[in-house]
Amino acid sequence: MKPSHQLPVIRLLFSGLFFSLSIQFIHSQSIHSQSDTTNLHDRSEWLKGLSTFDLVLIAQHIVQVRLLDSPYRLIAADVNYSNGVNALDIVLLRHLILDRPKPFFGEYNAWRYIRADYVFKNPASPFQELFPEKGINDTSLLQFIAVKIGDVNNSHTNDDPPGMMRQATLPVGIGQPSHRAGEFFTFPVSYEGAEALAAIQLGLQFDADNWELLEPSTAGLPDFEPGCFNLREAEKGRIKFVWYTPWEKEQLQMGRTLFYLTFRRKTASEVALMLRTDDGILENTGFSDPGQAYALVATEAFEPRSEVAGAAAPLAWTARCAPNPVTDVARFQVESPSAKAVSVWVFNALGIRTYYRELSIPAGTTEVAIPEVAQWPAGIYTWKVKAGKEKRQGQFVKR
Fold first, then answer.
1. How many structural domains are present in the chain?
2. Is residue 135 classed exposed, middle or buried when 0-12, 13-18 and 19+ CB atoms within 10 A define those classes?
3. What pLDDT does residue 190 have?
């Protein structure tokens, strides 16, 4: 008797049904002729079935949260044909989804065709053996299993309608400006759905005629970094964002701020930013850990949340950065009715701390100057002033 992992293949050959998670389709004749194999290198072919949930599955396998349980899924996860699964496969897939061209896409096929009657000696380590594949010039009539590279959850079929199959709609919050400094405005973007999400991809559009995007900045989301974005078309008002986590404790929950976007108003008019989701830029989709796909739709005018736990009454003390934007010295005015110990923190757009200081302030108004800012690169910085369990925070623009 053949190993159990081969039984679905045999059933597939007779029934013509799809085998979940590992098999796309079976051809009983030549898969491609010499003249039509060139499209296997195309980006459109590579994109079939790809989503941020594939990144989750590969990452979970790498950190051994949940191992890929089929030799065909492991082969699908080997994006760069390195005979292994590692973080570089995730990086390359993210480049594909965000539409960042990489030279390897033209070097390898988006599909691999494996002899259907081949029995893997070690299904958990298919790369340890030389399994038989169909070559470009192979005109045999043997049956082959077609593995779509990168599509680890086997979400693609030949008859796919345009777009992903999304079962429900969840909201993304486009908040009111959390900070204003002259012509500069910082908007929070948050997840407001009821389902926990392990992965998210956003395509955002804004009015580029009247607004200029300066840069995104962190809201403390784990593994937030510039590679999560494609801003090549920001001058056209188009933003792409991809994020995922292999860890259950880091999954997105309702009310989680994803990032901040700081814009400069280009004109004197009061034209609204018109920041919204647009599936024409990138399909706005969130994925739960089981792989359920949800459509994400922006909802404007979510009120920014208070940064002070339980603060319903007027604040007993205040802090602000002025003037803003900053060119050389950042100056903070801290006003308090009584003396207290405070700490001042500054973080760059990626959440890396660039400044820290502890001091005691008297009652009244105290100015805290940070001349080190003159040596910092231009960009968006987040500041926090903490006193005990309370904090005040905002952002300033370094020119």
1. 3
2. exposed
3. 94
- Name the burial class of residue 295, with classes exposed (0-12), middle (13-18) and buried (19+) by CB atoms within 10 angstroms of its CB: middle
Could you tell me if residue 219 is inside a domain? yes
Q: Where are the beta strands (DSSP E) in 192-231?
A: 199-205, 211-218, 229-230
**Looking at this protein, which amino acid is placed at residue 287?**
F
CATH number of the domain that residue 384 is part of? 2.60.40.2550
Q: Indicate whether 9 and 139 sit together in one domain.
A: yes
Question: Which domain, by its residues, includes 112?
Answer: 4-148
Residue 118 lies inside a defined structural domain of this protein: yes
Please give the radius of gyration of the chain, using alpha carbons only, rounded to the nearest integer. 26
pLDDT at residue 340, as a whole number: 93
Which amino acid appears at position 346 of this protein? V
Residues of the chain predicted below pLDDT 50: 1-38, 159-162, 301-313
Q: Note the pLDDT tens digit of each residue in 172-217.
A: 999 887 666 567 888 899 999 999 999 999 999 999 999 999 889 8
Any domain includes 162: no
Structure tokens at 139: 């005109």
Q: How far apart are alpha carbons 397 and 399 in whole angstroms?
A: 6
Output the pLDDT for position 7: 27
Does residue 285 share a domain with residue 172?
Answer: yes
